Amino acid sequence: MVATPRRAAVSEGPTLHKQITMMSQRGGSHPAPVQQRGKLGTYKGVLVPTCENMWGVIIFLRFYKIVGYSGLGYALLIASLSFMVALLTALSLSAIATCGTSQGLAGVYPMLARALGKEMATAVGLVYFLGIVFLAVLEVLGACEELEMVQHSLFEFTTHINAVRAWASAFMLALALLVAGGIRLISQLGLVFFAVVLLTMLSFYLSLFGAPNLEPIDAPANATGPAPSGLSTANLRANWGPSFAPGYEFTDCLAIFFPCFTGILSGANRASSLRDPASAIPRGTLGAITLSFCVYVSFLILWAAVGEREYLTMEHGQLDELIYPSVKAAQIGIVLSSLGQALQCVVVAPRLLASIAADGMLRPMRSLARLTGGEPKLALAATYLVGAMCVLIGSLNAVAPLLSMCFLTCYSMMNLNCCLLGLLKDPHWRPRFRYFHWAVGLVGFVLCTSIMFVIDWRYALGAWLLTLLVLALVVRTNAQTDWGSALVGLRFQLAMRSLTGIDIKAHLDENWRPQLLLLYHLREEESHGSRRGSSAAAGWGEAEPPAEPSSSSLGDLVRGDVGHTHERMFSVAAQLRHGSGLVIAAAVVPGASADSLRAVALAEAERARMDSLMGRMGVRGFCKTILARTLLEGKLGAIQWAGLGPLVPNTLLMGWPWWWRDEPEKYVPELVSTINAATIHEKTLLLCHRLSSFPGPDEELSGFLDVWCIIPLLGPFLDLSW
After folding, report:
1. What DSSP string runs through 75-97?
2. Residue 426 belongs to what H/E stretch?
3. Predicted confidence (pLDDT) per residue in 101-136, tens digit
4. 20 to 30 A Cα–Cα from 197, which one of 230, 326, 571, 581?
């Protein structure tokens, strides 16, 4: 009967070891993902959606003006800078997507939270949310601008700016209602809108190559402005240099162009629909960025070659004599493609906001995580309110810098976090993407931040202040996090280097300050009974620890005559420390075994109670419960091992053993041994007698405090008398 389980254990051992090895090699505790039917690959799941979100209204309405005012040389520089930002950020994104297991990914925020930590992911996610809303606003304003070209009479019912605001508000409301109606219709409309984008771009290519021979069938008969002269090297040479004007300086053109590279996280937003996110996201995103850069450069070159500068810089009408076969069809296509882009943004933004709210890092946002019929309706309402306020800006050129700031801030923080995680060698940071190095994140962060301040230093400062404010609010919540972060890793490395860089001997000799080891017998008033007339509580070993006192006054916590309680000991420690120094609180649990699950669980509950009380009383430090066979063994262990490097306590704070008369032959030698151990380890010893007569933390005193230093070679002895 004994051999059977032994044989079973031997037979199961290799299988279990093999499973553990396979799971550790995959970087997680989950089994290998199963290839599910209906999941999308790199092309349909990442490359196409990313291109769809990057190819927006700027291509159709601003490329010719960027070339006309900045010149082809500066236009290519702007495109190259934007491409480098997107490329470096995509490399950081690829490292994030391949860090750990790819199971359970439900969008860009869970991915960021897993790799960067929830604190940083919340700040980055909220900035990204604002960027998506601004992108929707930009596309809506672009649709309004082109709708005015289609039918100018629709904008004559009031002033021009108010008419644009009215139409933009109507479009935003319609998009929000459409999203609230259901996601299935939107999924089908997305394919239609992308087809319209492709057809419109094809029409532009055909028209640019065929000008001026291919004339639109509905070209205006009374057009008097400059017309396209056709592709020529003479136009390229003439349009190579800049001709900046107010509103179209280099920084303005950079701010207007950069939104063309703001859709690079679209693949990560669809991570839950991907067959293999860790492989599809890097390949699809990098492929979409490269393809888009080639498309943008080709358009810029064609616009520079098709006409003179006067034609490119006209207020409007560049498409009237160019687009083949129909100007109206192309203009309607631009309106539809712009609204399609805005619709995709309105779909993504509420889900991102609900995902951030569901983590509970910011308490006021928790209600936004509520789902109605499986859809984040409250988050959608919040998204609409933000968008409805932003469309009142009423100008595409005015929204573009704000949009660029949001995405550049988001990209900067992603790159910076990846750089720090790689540089600090954080244990949980294990990207499998081979082309990432911490220097990539550093260069990406510097480039993003530099472009922000080049565009507008005031907007850049505002964006960073807003981001740091959100991060500070998140950090102050002290919410539980499941993953590490670059912020935590940086603090850990700074703490490690500070501790290891301190000369302990010089620190103790020249910068002596009391670093307390608060040592006491856990629940001693219950173990030894009260000698002050109070009834003893039941033994802690038979029940859960009693609840904390409900009094809101810290002074009330230290009143009474029952033993050396948590409250009295921490009150004395707080008054002695007085805002400086370190406190390590150690509660000894005698008669408990460290290999007993029940004893360890109860000790952990007591430690949590101590930690909470230290926070309430303003005592900064650490707390620990020590399981030992005897009280003396626990005390001697704490005296020897408490602290780390320069944070080793130099002062031992204990309560007078008021129960010594119960068994003098036991407790007197125990106290003498503790005093002897403190002397040998060169620690100042403070024995607190009659703690019930000590003043509370909120009690004002007057008089003199005598401090006597005796036997200097053995350290100071402080006799505190009130």
Report:
1. HHHHHHHHHHHHHHHHHHHHHHH
2. none
3. 545 556 778 777 776 777 778 888 899 999 999 999
4. 230
Q: Is the pLDDT of residue 460 over 60?
A: yes
Q: Measured between alpha carbons, how far is 530 from 524 in angstroms, rounded to an integer? A: 9
Of 232, 257, 304, the closest CA to residue 68 belongs to: 304
Structure-token match 């900035």, residue found: 127
Of the candidates 296, 345, 236, 395, the one whose C-alpha atom is nearest the C-alpha of residue 82 is: 296
Per-residue tokens: 176: 């929000």
User: For residue 172, what pLDDT band results from cuts at 50, 70 and 90?
Assistant: very high
Say how many C-beta atoms besides its own lie within 10 A of residue 644's C-beta. 10
Distance CA 68, CA 253 (A): 10
DSSP state of 43: I
Record the tokens describing residue 244, joined without a space: 């900046």
Distance (Å) of CA 35 to CA 103, 149, 281: 12, 49, 16
The model's pTM is 0.71
Across the chain, mean pLDDT equals: 79
3-state per-residue secondary structure call for 665-680: HHHHHHHHHHHHHHHH
Alpha carbon of 610 to those of 335, 372, 570, 587, 623: distances in Å?
A: 63, 41, 9, 9, 7
- DSSP per position, 507-564: HHHHS----EEEEEETTHHHHH--SSSPPPPPPGGGSPPPPPP--S-HHHHT-SSSSS
Euclidean distance between the first and final Cα of the chain, in Å?
Answer: 72
The continuous run of DSSP H or E covering 719 comes out as: none
Hey, what are 312's tokens? 């490119």
Note the pLDDT of residue 502. Answer: 66
Give me the DSSP letters along 192-216.
Answer: HHHHHHHHHHHHHHHHHHHTTTS--
Q: Read off the tokens for 569.
A: 């000991």
In sequence order, what DSSP letters do the residues of 649-706 get, joined into one string? --EEEEE--TTGGGSHHHHHHHHHHHHHHHHHTT-EEEEE--GGGSPPTT----S---
Sign of CA dihedral 628, 630, 636, 639: positive
DSSP 255-287: HHHGGGG--TTHHHHTGGGBS-HHHHHHHHHHH
Tally of CB atoms within 10 A around 394: 18
Which residues lie below 8 Å from residue 568, measured CB to CB, with a gap of 6+? 558, 655, 688, 691, 692, 694
Predicted confidence (pLDDT) per residue in 251-305, tens digit? 999 999 999 998 888 887 777 778 888 888 899 999 999 999 999 999 999 999 9
β 621-628/583-590 pair status: parallel
Measured in degrees and rounded to the nearest 5, phi and psi for residue 685 equal -115, 125
